[in-house]
Amino acid sequence: MNRSDAVRELVKAHFHLETDIDGLPLAVSPIGPDEIEAAIETLLSGWMTMGSRVAAFEEAWAEAVGTDHAVCVNSGSSALLVMLTALIETGVLERGQEMIVPAVGWSTSLFTVAQAGLHPVLVDVGAESLCLEGEWDRPVMAVHLLGCPSRATGPVVVEDACGAHGASLGNRRAGSIGAASAFSFFFSHHLSTIEGGMVNTNSEAVANAARSVRAHGWTRERSDRARINAANAEIDPRFLFVSAGYNLRPTEITGAMGVCQVPKLEAFVAKRRANHHQWCETISELNLPLRVFPELPGTEHAAFAFPMLLDADASVDRQALCAALEARGIATRPISGSNLARQPAFGRVPNARVEGNTPVADAVHTRGFFVGQSHAFDHTHLERLVDGLKASF
Questions:
Q1: Which pTM does this prediction carry?
Q2: For residue 35, what are the β-bridge partners?
């Protein structure tokens, strides 16, 4: 038996996806035997830092999203920071410029804007999408919240698609709409490399800047490195730095697992969308004092999670409802960072301000929550959720 066969048999012997609790499968992660086998093979290869497997993942993900370039990093938050920094470095954005940011989003959807040197302006989100909507006169951070595509437009659009793998707006995939986009491959996302992120763009200049920013500011992975090296012939090109970069590189394990993941995206998202549609339809028919958020016309929802919003006059508050659901084994979470302007950290974000009133974000902050969604969920998960909701009012 060769090494690959031995690894394969080891994984099969110890990978128990059939285990369940109360009849509900535990296999809610996208990681399966293929990914574990690829990770072990990478460890055994002796090459574990960023290399050919990461490059293969980048190529596959660029094709899946529909962009010319993809640059892999160590997390979705890092992808946001690298993306914004690269856009500033190439002149697409200017340091000190205001950027419109939805008041409802993840913490680093906001923080990285300021960290890159931009001035974040929080505004309210749409009542039907919980995303940034409308046309703006300044650059916008379009957060595709929980897989729902943001329909915001502006002079420059950048996309936080960290939870929107496979979502679409019209005939364009989320991540291919703006000047650049960021994805996350965290353990709980549609596709997972445990940790990991990606910057997508059609601009070779932005991609090259991102490659330098993610790895110390050096030129090594840039397509234009020969020109830069020649212009700086007195410096050893192995340690030639052209950007004030970071070290946000992924490992080869990220690349190896990602290559296994990408072909599974279509089936995963199709199942999630079917679940989302069925859950919206079923829960709406219960006539409970809460609202759900169906897929909007002209969009394809990636269904990262299933958000709900309690009515203002509901007989129970969010804390009591979530506690009742948790007691039934149904995990709950607030909707992302809720109204980020009401988070304690907001006062520590340089040059951040709020523009206009934020009634939708305020409602989300006090009455919004979500439950998990997965391609591995079936009718039993919906039945458990329905029973829990009906028993809570």
A1: 0.93
A2: none
Query: Beta strand 157-160 with 140-143: parallel, antiparallel or unpaired?
Result: parallel
Which amino acid does the sequence have at 167? A
> Degrees (nearest 5) of the Cα angle 136, 141, 145?
115
Q: Which two tokens stand for residue 54?
A: 């990461």
Full 3-state SS string of 21-58? ECCEECCCCCCCHHHHHHHHHHHHHCCCECCHHHHHHH
Residue 329, both tokens: 């084994």
Helix, strand, coil % in the chain, rounded to nearest 5:
40, 20, 40
Q: Tell me: do 73 and 168 sit in the same domain.
A: yes
Kindly state whether residue 220 falls inside one of the protein's structural domains: yes
pLDDT, tens digit, for every residue of 99-128?
999 999 999 999 999 999 999 999 999 999
**Tokens 């409970």 label which residue?**
288
Question: Is the domain of 184 the same as that of 44?
Answer: yes
Q: Looking at the domain assignment, is residue 1 inside a domain?
A: no
CA distance 118 to 284: 41
- Number of domains the chain is built from: 2
Please report where in the chains the tokens 């995939």 appear, as a residue: 173
Say if 8 falls within a structural domain.
Answer: no
Q: Taking the CB of residue 35, how many other CB atoms lie within 10 A of it?
A: 24
236 and 273 inside one domain: no
Residues 134, 187 within the same domain: yes
Is there a domain that residue 2 lies in?
Answer: no
Q: Which domain holds residue 286?
A: 265-392
Query: Which among 147, 149, 3, 162 is positioned nearest to 73, based on CA atoms?
Result: 162
243 and 271 part of one domain = no
Cβ distance 82 to 92 under 8 Å?
no
List, for residues 209-259, the tens digit of each pLDDT value. Answer: 999 999 999 999 999 999 999 999 999 999 999 999 999 999 999 999 999
Residue 392 DSSP SS3: helix
